[in-house]
Protein backbone atom coordinates (compact mmCIF):
# COMPACT_ATOMS: atom_id res chain seq x y z
CA UNK A 1 0.00 0.00 0.00
CA UNK A 2 1.32 3.41 -0.91
CA UNK A 3 1.49 5.95 1.86
CA UNK A 4 -0.93 8.77 1.33
CA UNK A 5 0.33 12.32 1.42
CA UNK A 6 -1.17 14.12 4.44
CA UNK A 7 -2.92 17.38 3.68
CA UNK A 8 -3.75 20.13 6.13
CA UNK A 9 -6.73 22.31 5.23
CA UNK A 10 -6.65 25.79 6.72
CA UNK A 11 -9.92 27.63 6.82
CA UNK A 12 -11.21 30.65 8.71
CA UNK A 13 -12.94 33.89 7.99
CA UNK A 14 -11.51 36.76 5.92
CA UNK A 15 -8.45 38.18 7.60
CA UNK A 16 -8.49 35.78 10.56
CA UNK A 17 -4.79 35.07 10.09
CA UNK A 18 -4.62 32.05 7.77
CA UNK A 19 -1.69 33.34 5.70
CA UNK A 20 0.09 34.39 8.87
CA UNK A 21 -0.35 30.87 10.26
CA UNK A 22 0.86 29.29 7.01
CA UNK A 23 3.90 31.55 7.08
CA UNK A 24 4.64 30.37 10.61
CA UNK A 25 4.14 26.72 9.61
CA UNK A 26 6.54 27.01 6.69
CA UNK A 27 9.14 28.78 8.79
CA UNK A 28 8.99 26.13 11.50
CA UNK A 29 8.49 22.97 9.48
CA UNK A 30 11.03 20.27 10.25
CA UNK A 31 14.14 20.69 8.11
CA UNK A 32 13.95 18.70 4.91
CA UNK A 33 10.17 18.36 4.97
CA UNK A 34 8.89 19.45 1.58
CA UNK A 35 5.55 21.21 1.79
CA UNK A 36 3.37 22.11 -1.19
CA UNK A 37 0.99 24.99 -0.74
CA UNK A 38 -2.32 25.53 -2.50
CA UNK A 39 -3.64 29.02 -1.95
CA UNK A 40 -7.18 29.98 -2.80
CA UNK A 41 -8.11 33.64 -2.77
CA UNK A 42 -11.34 35.53 -3.08
CA UNK A 43 -10.68 38.49 -5.32
CA UNK A 44 -8.50 38.72 -8.36
CA UNK A 45 -5.23 39.91 -6.85
CA UNK A 46 -2.91 37.17 -5.65
CA UNK A 47 -1.95 39.01 -2.48
CA UNK A 48 -1.47 36.04 -0.15
CA UNK A 49 0.82 34.17 -2.52
CA UNK A 50 2.76 37.32 -3.14
CA UNK A 51 3.19 37.94 0.57
CA UNK A 52 4.38 34.38 1.17
CA UNK A 53 6.68 34.46 -1.83
CA UNK A 54 8.04 37.79 -0.61
CA UNK A 55 9.22 36.24 2.65
CA UNK A 56 12.52 35.25 1.06
CA UNK A 57 12.96 32.06 3.09
CA UNK A 58 13.95 28.85 1.40
CA UNK A 59 10.83 27.31 2.95
CA UNK A 60 8.61 29.65 0.91
CA UNK A 61 9.67 28.38 -2.48
CA UNK A 62 7.57 29.89 -5.18
CA UNK A 63 7.60 26.71 -7.25
CA UNK A 64 5.94 24.87 -4.36
CA UNK A 65 3.00 27.27 -4.29
CA UNK A 66 -0.06 26.91 -6.48
CA UNK A 67 -2.66 29.60 -6.58
CA UNK A 68 -6.35 29.15 -7.24
CA UNK A 69 -7.25 32.76 -7.74
CA UNK A 70 -10.50 34.57 -7.91
CA UNK A 71 -12.62 31.67 -6.92
CA UNK A 72 -13.91 29.87 -3.92
CA UNK A 73 -12.37 26.48 -3.70
CA UNK A 74 -15.74 25.00 -2.79
CA UNK A 75 -17.35 26.25 -6.00
CA UNK A 76 -14.51 25.20 -8.24
CA UNK A 77 -13.73 21.79 -6.78
CA UNK A 78 -14.25 19.89 -10.01
CA UNK A 79 -12.90 22.49 -12.43
CA UNK A 80 -9.93 23.77 -10.56
CA UNK A 81 -9.12 21.98 -7.36
CA UNK A 82 -9.09 18.38 -8.60
CA UNK A 83 -6.93 19.17 -11.67
CA UNK A 84 -4.58 21.22 -9.49
CA UNK A 85 -4.20 18.33 -7.07
CA UNK A 86 -3.66 15.90 -9.92
CA UNK A 87 -0.97 18.13 -11.42
CA UNK A 88 0.72 18.39 -8.04
CA UNK A 89 0.62 14.64 -7.53
CA UNK A 90 2.02 14.04 -11.01
CA UNK A 91 5.10 16.14 -10.32
CA UNK A 92 8.37 14.29 -10.14
CA UNK A 93 9.56 16.12 -7.08
CA UNK A 94 7.39 14.59 -4.38
CA UNK A 95 6.01 16.40 -1.37
CA UNK A 96 5.86 15.20 2.21
CA UNK A 97 2.87 17.31 3.08
CA UNK A 98 0.31 19.54 1.35
CA UNK A 99 -1.20 22.64 2.94
CA UNK A 100 -4.33 24.20 1.47
CA UNK A 101 -5.22 27.72 2.51
CA UNK A 102 -8.84 28.28 1.54
CA UNK A 103 -10.28 31.70 0.90
CA UNK A 104 -11.91 33.34 3.89
CA UNK A 105 -15.29 32.87 2.25
CA UNK A 106 -14.90 29.21 1.40
CA UNK A 107 -17.18 26.57 2.73
CA UNK A 108 -14.86 23.75 3.78
CA UNK A 109 -17.30 20.84 3.39
CA UNK A 110 -17.22 20.49 -0.44
CA UNK A 111 -13.44 20.60 -0.35
CA UNK A 112 -13.28 17.88 2.30
CA UNK A 113 -15.68 15.79 0.27
CA UNK A 114 -13.44 16.15 -2.80
CA UNK A 115 -10.85 14.05 -1.01
CA UNK A 116 -13.19 11.11 -1.54
CA UNK A 117 -12.89 11.40 -5.31
CA UNK A 118 -11.18 8.15 -6.30
CA UNK A 119 -8.22 9.71 -8.07
CA UNK A 120 -7.50 11.89 -5.04
CA UNK A 121 -8.36 9.39 -2.32
CA UNK A 122 -5.85 6.87 -3.58
CA UNK A 123 -2.95 9.22 -2.98
CA UNK A 124 -3.90 11.87 -0.43
CA UNK A 125 -5.67 12.10 2.90
CA UNK A 126 -6.70 15.04 5.05
CA UNK A 127 -4.41 15.17 8.04
CA UNK A 128 -6.63 17.72 9.69
CA UNK A 129 -8.87 20.73 9.11
CA UNK A 130 -7.63 23.76 11.01
CA UNK A 131 -9.99 26.69 11.42
CA UNK A 132 -8.50 30.03 12.35
CA UNK A 133 -10.84 32.23 14.36
CA UNK A 134 -10.33 35.98 14.64
CA UNK A 135 -10.65 36.67 18.37
CA UNK A 136 -10.71 40.42 17.78
CA UNK A 137 -13.51 40.27 15.21
CA UNK A 138 -15.55 37.98 17.43
CA UNK A 139 -14.99 40.12 20.50
CA UNK A 140 -16.09 43.19 18.59
CA UNK A 141 -19.23 41.44 17.37
CA UNK A 142 -18.28 41.85 13.75
CA UNK A 143 -20.29 38.83 12.72
CA UNK A 144 -23.44 40.31 14.17
CA UNK A 145 -26.10 41.57 11.81
CA UNK A 146 -26.08 45.26 12.58
CA UNK A 147 -23.02 46.19 14.53
CA UNK A 148 -23.91 49.79 14.97
CA UNK A 149 -27.29 49.03 16.43
CA UNK A 150 -26.38 46.51 19.07
CA UNK A 151 -24.78 47.35 22.37
CA UNK A 152 -21.71 45.55 23.67
CA UNK A 153 -23.65 43.02 25.70
CA UNK A 154 -25.94 42.04 22.88
CA UNK A 155 -23.02 41.77 20.55
CA UNK A 156 -21.55 39.06 22.75
CA UNK A 157 -24.73 37.07 22.45
CA UNK A 158 -24.83 37.52 18.73
CA UNK A 159 -21.27 36.49 18.08
CA UNK A 160 -22.40 33.37 16.37
CA UNK A 161 -25.53 34.77 14.86
CA UNK A 162 -27.45 32.22 12.83
CA UNK A 163 -29.19 34.82 10.72
CA UNK A 164 -26.31 36.46 8.94
CA UNK A 165 -24.27 35.06 6.06
CA UNK A 166 -21.15 35.81 8.06
CA UNK A 167 -22.35 33.96 11.13
CA UNK A 168 -23.48 30.93 9.17
CA UNK A 169 -20.29 30.72 7.21
CA UNK A 170 -18.28 30.89 10.39
CA UNK A 171 -20.35 28.11 11.94
CA UNK A 172 -19.75 25.98 8.86
CA UNK A 173 -16.04 26.59 9.18
CA UNK A 174 -16.19 25.60 12.86
CA UNK A 175 -18.21 22.47 12.25
CA UNK A 176 -15.66 21.29 9.68
CA UNK A 177 -12.71 21.72 12.02
CA UNK A 178 -10.46 19.18 13.73
CA UNK A 179 -8.56 21.98 15.42
CA UNK A 180 -9.37 25.60 16.15
CA UNK A 181 -6.72 28.26 16.42
CA UNK A 182 -8.14 31.27 18.25
CA UNK A 183 -5.85 33.87 16.78
CA UNK A 184 -5.23 37.57 17.52
CA UNK A 185 -5.32 36.95 21.25
CA UNK A 186 -3.01 39.96 21.63
CA UNK A 187 -5.92 42.22 20.65
CA UNK A 188 -8.43 40.94 23.19
CA UNK A 189 -8.46 41.12 26.97
CA UNK A 190 -8.41 37.79 28.86
CA UNK A 191 -11.99 37.97 30.14
CA UNK A 192 -13.35 38.62 26.67
CA UNK A 193 -11.15 35.87 25.32
CA UNK A 194 -12.82 33.41 27.68
CA UNK A 195 -16.20 34.50 26.34
CA UNK A 196 -15.01 34.12 22.75
CA UNK A 197 -13.62 30.66 23.47
CA UNK A 198 -16.77 29.52 25.27
CA UNK A 199 -18.90 30.64 22.32
CA UNK A 200 -16.68 28.79 19.90
CA UNK A 201 -16.59 25.64 22.00
CA UNK A 202 -20.39 25.57 22.06
CA UNK A 203 -20.32 25.05 18.30
CA UNK A 204 -17.74 22.28 18.12
CA UNK A 205 -17.97 18.55 17.80
CA UNK A 206 -16.64 16.73 20.87
CA UNK A 207 -12.90 16.19 20.78
CA UNK A 208 -12.00 19.16 18.60
CA UNK A 209 -8.87 20.84 19.95
CA UNK A 210 -8.72 24.56 20.68
CA UNK A 211 -5.50 26.50 20.93
CA UNK A 212 -4.94 30.20 21.39
CA UNK A 213 -2.37 32.10 19.39
CA UNK A 214 -1.05 35.50 18.48
CA UNK A 215 0.23 35.98 14.95
CA UNK A 216 -0.25 32.29 14.19
CA UNK A 217 2.47 31.27 16.61
CA UNK A 218 1.46 27.73 17.41
CA UNK A 219 3.48 24.62 18.02
CA UNK A 220 3.49 23.17 14.56
CA UNK A 221 3.77 19.61 15.79
CA UNK A 222 0.22 20.13 17.08
CA UNK A 223 -0.92 21.02 13.57
CA UNK A 224 0.98 18.64 11.32
CA UNK A 225 0.50 14.94 11.90
CA UNK A 226 -3.01 14.97 13.36
CA UNK A 227 -3.89 11.91 11.26
CA UNK A 228 -7.62 12.66 11.22
CA UNK A 229 -8.60 11.35 7.75
CA UNK A 230 -11.29 14.02 7.89
CA UNK A 231 -12.70 12.97 4.51
CA UNK A 232 -13.99 9.77 6.12
CA UNK A 233 -15.96 11.75 8.67
CA UNK A 234 -17.79 14.26 6.47
CA UNK A 235 -21.22 13.25 7.81
CA UNK A 236 -20.30 14.63 11.22
CA UNK A 237 -19.43 18.03 9.79
CA UNK A 238 -22.73 19.50 8.70
CA UNK A 239 -22.96 22.75 6.81
CA UNK A 240 -25.84 25.22 6.93
CA UNK A 241 -25.58 25.93 3.27
CA UNK A 242 -25.50 22.36 2.18
CA UNK A 243 -28.36 21.42 4.48
CA UNK A 244 -30.52 24.37 3.55
CA UNK A 245 -29.85 24.53 -0.13
CA UNK A 246 -28.91 20.98 -0.92
CA UNK A 247 -25.53 22.30 -1.92
CA UNK A 248 -27.08 24.17 -4.80
CA UNK A 249 -26.33 27.72 -3.80
CA UNK A 250 -23.23 29.23 -2.38
CA UNK A 251 -22.90 31.80 0.31
CA UNK A 252 -20.45 33.68 -1.85
CA UNK A 253 -23.42 35.16 -3.61
CA UNK A 254 -23.66 37.24 -0.48
CA UNK A 255 -20.21 38.70 -1.00
CA UNK A 256 -18.52 40.78 -3.62
CA UNK A 257 -14.99 41.81 -4.44
CA UNK A 258 -13.18 44.00 -6.91
CA UNK A 259 -9.73 45.39 -7.32
CA UNK A 260 -8.43 48.75 -8.36
CA UNK A 261 -5.12 50.30 -9.29
CA UNK A 262 -3.90 53.79 -8.54
CA UNK A 263 -0.98 54.83 -10.78
CA UNK A 264 0.44 57.03 -8.03
CA UNK A 265 -0.47 58.15 -4.54
CA UNK A 266 0.27 61.28 -2.52
CA UNK A 267 1.91 59.68 0.51
CA UNK A 268 1.65 56.74 2.88
CA UNK A 269 -0.23 58.36 5.76
CA UNK A 270 -2.75 59.97 3.45
CA UNK A 271 -3.36 56.63 1.72
CA UNK A 272 -3.88 54.78 5.00
CA UNK A 273 -6.23 57.49 6.30
CA UNK A 274 -8.18 57.35 3.05
CA UNK A 275 -8.47 53.57 3.30
CA UNK A 276 -9.61 53.78 6.90
CA UNK A 277 -12.26 56.35 6.06
CA UNK A 278 -13.47 54.34 3.07
CA UNK A 279 -13.77 51.13 5.07
CA UNK A 280 -15.87 52.85 7.75
CA UNK A 281 -18.10 54.62 5.27
CA UNK A 282 -18.80 51.55 3.12
CA UNK A 283 -18.68 48.57 5.50
CA UNK A 284 -15.74 47.00 3.73
CA UNK A 285 -14.91 43.65 5.36
CA UNK A 286 -11.43 43.17 3.99
CA UNK A 287 -8.98 45.20 1.94
CA UNK A 288 -5.45 44.21 1.02
CA UNK A 289 -2.79 44.86 -1.55
CA UNK A 290 0.43 46.69 -2.20
CA UNK A 291 1.19 50.37 -2.53
CA UNK A 292 3.89 52.35 -4.27
CA UNK A 293 4.91 55.06 -1.84
CA UNK A 294 6.68 57.97 -3.55
CA UNK A 295 10.42 57.77 -2.97
CA UNK A 296 10.30 54.33 -1.29
CA UNK A 297 12.49 51.54 -2.64
CA UNK A 298 10.19 48.88 -1.17
CA UNK A 299 6.53 48.18 -1.76
CA UNK A 300 4.09 48.74 1.07
CA UNK A 301 1.92 45.74 1.94
CA UNK A 302 -1.48 46.91 3.14
CA UNK A 303 -3.79 44.83 5.27
CA UNK A 304 -7.18 45.85 6.55
CA UNK A 305 -9.50 43.56 8.44
CA UNK A 306 -12.69 45.37 9.34
CA UNK A 307 -11.73 48.77 10.75
CA UNK A 308 -8.10 47.82 11.52
CA UNK A 309 -5.62 48.99 8.89
CA UNK A 310 -1.95 48.02 9.02
CA UNK A 311 0.91 48.43 6.57
CA UNK A 312 4.54 47.38 6.31
CA UNK A 313 7.24 47.46 3.65
CA UNK A 314 7.53 43.80 2.71
CA UNK A 315 10.18 43.70 -0.01
CA UNK A 316 12.06 45.94 -2.45
CA UNK A 317 10.43 46.55 -5.81
CA UNK A 318 11.88 44.22 -8.42
CA UNK A 319 13.58 45.72 -11.45
CA UNK A 320 10.97 46.36 -14.12
CA UNK A 321 8.03 45.71 -11.78
CA UNK A 322 5.32 48.34 -12.27
CA UNK A 323 5.33 50.64 -9.25
CA UNK A 324 1.63 51.10 -8.79
CA UNK A 325 -0.83 50.74 -5.94
CA UNK A 326 -3.16 47.74 -6.31
CA UNK A 327 -5.87 46.95 -3.82
CA UNK A 328 -8.56 44.31 -3.53
CA UNK A 329 -11.76 45.21 -1.71
CA UNK A 330 -14.12 42.58 -0.26
CA UNK A 331 -17.50 43.12 1.36
CA UNK A 332 -21.06 41.97 1.58
CA UNK A 333 -23.34 42.51 -1.39
CA UNK A 334 -24.15 45.07 -2.58
CA UNK A 335 -20.73 46.66 -2.59
CA UNK A 336 -20.98 50.20 -3.96
CA UNK A 337 -18.00 49.84 -6.28
CA UNK A 338 -18.29 53.31 -7.81
CA UNK A 339 -18.45 55.10 -4.46
CA UNK A 340 -15.67 53.00 -2.92
CA UNK A 341 -13.46 53.55 -5.94
CA UNK A 342 -14.12 57.30 -5.87
CA UNK A 343 -13.32 57.38 -2.17
CA UNK A 344 -10.05 55.45 -2.55
CA UNK A 345 -9.06 57.56 -5.53
CA UNK A 346 -8.82 60.51 -3.18
CA UNK A 347 -5.43 59.03 -2.21
CA UNK A 348 -4.20 59.44 -5.80
CA UNK A 349 -1.56 62.02 -6.55
N1 LIG B 1 -2.62 41.93 16.02
C1 LIG B 1 -2.63 40.79 15.32
N2 LIG B 1 -2.70 40.84 13.98
C2 LIG B 1 -2.70 39.66 13.29
C3 LIG B 1 -2.63 38.41 13.93
N3 LIG B 1 -2.67 37.44 12.98
C4 LIG B 1 -2.74 38.08 11.80
N4 LIG B 1 -2.75 39.41 11.99
C5 LIG B 1 -2.86 40.45 10.95
O1 LIG B 1 -4.15 40.37 10.38
C6 LIG B 1 -4.09 40.68 8.99
C7 LIG B 1 -4.69 39.55 8.17
O2 LIG B 1 -3.88 38.39 8.33
P1 LIG B 1 -3.81 37.26 7.22
O3 LIG B 1 -2.90 36.20 7.75
O4 LIG B 1 -3.53 37.85 5.90
O5 LIG B 1 -5.31 36.75 7.23
P2 LIG B 1 -6.00 35.71 6.23
O6 LIG B 1 -6.93 34.92 7.05
O7 LIG B 1 -4.98 34.97 5.47
O8 LIG B 1 -6.79 36.70 5.25
P3 LIG B 1 -7.64 36.31 3.90
O9 LIG B 1 -6.80 35.31 3.17
O10 LIG B 1 -7.78 37.61 3.20
O11 LIG B 1 -8.93 35.77 4.37
C8 LIG B 1 -2.64 40.96 8.69
O12 LIG B 1 -2.43 42.34 8.79
C9 LIG B 1 -1.90 40.22 9.80
O13 LIG B 1 -0.65 40.78 10.07
C10 LIG B 1 -2.57 38.40 15.38
O14 LIG B 1 -2.56 37.34 16.03
N5 LIG B 1 -2.57 39.60 15.99
Describe the protein.
The protein is globular. It has two domains: 5-245, P-loop containing nucleotide triphosphate hydrolases (Rossmann fold), CATH 3.40.50; 254-347, Hypothetical Protein Yjia, Chain: A,domain 2 (2-Layer Sandwich), CATH 3.30.1220.10. It has helices at residues 18-28, 47-53, 77-90, 108-114, 118-121, 135-139, 152-157, 165-175, 190-201, 220-223, 240-245, 268-282, 337-344, and strands at 5-12, 35-40, 65-68, 97-101, 124-134, 179-183, 209-212, 255-262, 284-291, 298-305, 308-316, 325-332. Helix content is 32%, strand content 24%. Strand 6 (179-183), helix 9 (190-201) and strand 7 form a beta-alpha-beta unit. A seven-stranded parallel beta sheet has the order 3-2-4-1-5-6-7, sandwiched between helices. The protein has 349 residues and is α/β, with parallel strands linked by helices. The termini are far apart. The site of guanosine-5'-triphosphate (GTP) has 21 residues, from helix 1 and strand 10.
The proportion of residues in beta strands is 15-25%
- Known CATH architecture of the largest domain: 3-Layer(aba) Sandwich
Number of H- or I-type helical stretches? 13
Arithmetic mean of pLDDT: 84
Structural class: alpha/beta
Reading side by side through the largest sheet, how are the strands ordered? 3-2-4-1-5-6-7
CATH class wording of the largest domain: Alpha Beta
Please provide the count of β strands: 12
Classify the fold: give the CATH topology of the largest domain.
Answer: Rossmann fold
Bound molecules: guanosine-5'-triphosphate
Helix content estimate: 25-40%
Unreliably modeled segments? 145-162
Going by CATH, the homologous superfamily of the largest domain would be P-loop containing nucleotide triphosphate hydrolases
Task: Spell out the helices and strands N to C.
Answer: EHEHEHEHHEHHHEHEHHEHEEEEH
Number of separate domains: 2
Radius of gyration (Å): 20 Å
Shape: globular
Largest sheet: 7 strands, parallel
Function: Zinc chaperone that directly transfers zinc cofactor to target proteins, thereby activating them. Zinc is transferred from the CXCC motif in the GTPase domain to the zinc binding site in target proteins in a process requiring GTP hydrolysis.
GO molecular function, one term: nucleotide binding
InterPro entries: CobW (IPR012824), CobW-likC_sf (IPR036627), CobW-like_C (IPR011629), CobW/HypB/UreG_nucleotide-bd (IPR003495), P-loop_NTPase (IPR027417), Zinc-reg_GTPase_activator (IPR051316)
Biased composition (Basic and acidic residues): 239-252
